[in-house]
Write a structure and sequence with these properties.
Number of strands: 22
Helix content: 25-40%
Protein name: AAA family ATPase
Shape: globular
Largest sheet: 6 strands, mixed
Structural class: alpha+beta
Oligomer: single chain
Number of helices: 17
Distance between the termini: 33 Å
Radius of gyration: 25 Å
Strand order of the largest sheet: 13-12-16-17-19-18
Pfam families: HATPase_c_4, SLFN_AlbA_2
CATH class of the largest domain: Alpha Beta
Length: 508
């Protein structure tokens, strides 16, 4: 059984934080069992973790080339691992995938947070016949270490048993068929998972089971909430108002106000909203400095700060509260509002100092999917990135607000001061997204080629969205038709030009 992420990227910690990966040079049942139990307990709601057997560790990173395991004992290790997992109470079996790295054999264990926590396992594993039975204990992760839980932590762990994160709960009102096979395959292709090829011919239930997106007894399997959030075309049918609304208010009276609503799978609505903001909201101010080759460029809001703030809102909002994420743009600021606010481990003082370190995450599976798609940063790194991007742009620092009840979380990004100036000469230098002038055909052709190189095959509607248009227009149609005629791009299925699923792709 394959795991739904790329193993090379996992080893190089490109999508998963180091605290969620443990390396073992050889098969040693006792510490491996302790770590499986700790990841399954998922004390901080991070989504469990991974154990890689056959890879040596140095300062928290794998050593390359990998050490590997002896081919002659691979079957014996796998059998012994499955037998030892029977010692975990309640029983827990991780996903085990054999893999080859640098031509050498390794095992990768995927241990998602378990639905029956708390789990405990033997402190010592005795192999001799007639040996005494070991006491069993609860294990948890602290940073990148597996430790035995103390009395206070055991009590807290028991309390977590009644609090499965909402995104990881079974949805009794949905069916497995509500998840779309095409969306599952697109995701697996995007993350370069070995599950991708099989997903093209297997049933939705089989693929979803391998991705841990279904639960319940065999006779009544149901999808997990996160499966509907990412792999259903309209998750707002199950979680009302799970969408992003972008409101541009150039005037406090509301004159000229524009509103866009982005729905669909969480990753798609996030991409679409960010694409719209990048093309229609982000503005650049260019100042030419005498005797200097490089011009000074600043932005009303640095895109990476906006990207991280909005991604964090999608990650950390509650999908049990039926209110959308709203992005409000005025001449003075951009505000991103999501509900509810941060947990009480983050104090008012932390908010003022812009130091937001969460002890436990609200959505463990949403975070995993967004990280694997490279749409959010690692744990507790998003706020520092926003602060640094604002500083580097010469903007005022962001402001983070909530109320005493922690009922909302508002991120305020002040506009760069130069954009508040009324000087007409300065206004001429403004280049507001792509709104300052219409794109000519040559520019549009270049943008089409860039979009296809970046995103792969796209339908005409997807291409229009990627280029920041509200809808497909005649100009874009004409440009693409001309590019097809001269051989710059082609239809994915040239013999079926009018197919509903037709996409545009680059010429090979």
């Amino acid at each position: 059984m394959a795991i739904p992420i790329n193993i090379e990227e996992l080893l190089r910690q490109q999508v998963i934080e180091s605290a969620r990966i443990e390396y073992k040079a050889d098969w040693n049942p006792e510490p491996v069992l302790h770590s499986i139990t700790a990841f399954a307990n998922d004390f901080d709601n991070l989504g469990g973790g991974y154990i890689v057997i056959g890879v040596e560790e140095q300062n928290g990173y794998p050593r390359f080339p990998v050490k590997g395991l002896d081919k002659n004992i691979l079957d014996a290790i796998q059998k012994d691992l499955l037998n030892k997992c029977n010692f975990i109470e309640p029983r827990y079996i991780p996903v085990i995938e054999p893999a080859q790295i640098d031509g050498r054999d390794i095992f990768v264990l995927w241990i998602p947070g378990g639905g029956d926590r708390p789990y405990k396992c033997p402190v010592k594993i005795y192999t001799e016949k007639g040996a005494k039975k070991s006491e069993k204990a609860y294990y948890i992760r602290k940073g990148s270490n597996t430790i035995r839980a103390n009395t206070l932590e055991e009590r807290e762990l028991t309390g977590l048993a009644r609090n499965i994160p909402f995104d990881d709960r079974i949805n009794p009102h949905a069916q497995i068929a509500d998840m779309r096979s095409s969306l599952l395959s697109e995701y697996l292709h995007a993350v370069d998972s070995e599950l991708y090829e099989g997903s093209l011919s297997r049933t939705v239930e089989d693929v979803a089971r391998d991705m841990r997106l279904i639960g319940g007894p065999p006779e009544a399997r149901k999808p997990i909430n996160v499966g509907l959030m990412f792999f259903n075309e309209r998750p707002d049918n199950f979680f009302p108002y799970s969408r992003i609304e972008v409101v541009d208010k150039p005037d406090p009276t509301g004159i000229g106000m524009r509103e866009r609503i982005f729905t669909g799978p969480l990753d798609r609505q996030l991409r679409d909203a960010l694409s719209y903001i990048k093309n229609y909201v982000i503005a650049e101010y260019v100042t030419k400095v005498p005797d200097q080759a490089e011009a000074i460029r600043v932005y009303n809001w640095p895109y990476r700060a906006v990207e991280e703030a909005l991604s964090n809102a999608v990650y950390h909002r509650s999908y049990q509260i039926h209110e959308p994420i709203t992005v409000t743009v005025t001449p003075e600021r951009m505000e991103i509002l999501s509900l509810p606010g941060p947990d009480r481990s983050i104090t008012d003082s932390d908010l003022e100092k812009r130091v937001l370190v969460s002890s436990r995450y609200r959505n463990r599976r949403i975070g995993d999917f967004l990280k694997e798609l490279k749409m959010v940063e690692g744990r507790n790194t998003g706020i520092p990135l926003i602060v640094n991007e604002m500083k580097n742009n010469g903007s005022a620092l962001p402001v983070f607000k909530t109320d005493e009840d922690r009922s909302y979380f508002r991120v305020i990004l002040p506009v760069h001061p130069v954009f508040l100036e009324k000087n007409k000469d300065d206004a001429k230098k403004l280049k507001v997204g792509k709104r300052s002038r219409r794109r000519n055909r040559e520019e549009l052709k270049k943008l089409v080629l860039k979009a296809l190189k970046r995103k792969g095959n796209l339908s005409m509607n997807e291409l229009a969205t990627e280029l920041g248009y509200k809808s497909l227009n005649d100009t874009l149609r004409a440009v693409v038709k001309e590019m097809i005629e001269v051989g710059e791009v082609t239809y994915l299925y040239p013999d079926k030009p009018n197919s509903r699923n037709q996409k545009i792709c680059l010429m090979k």
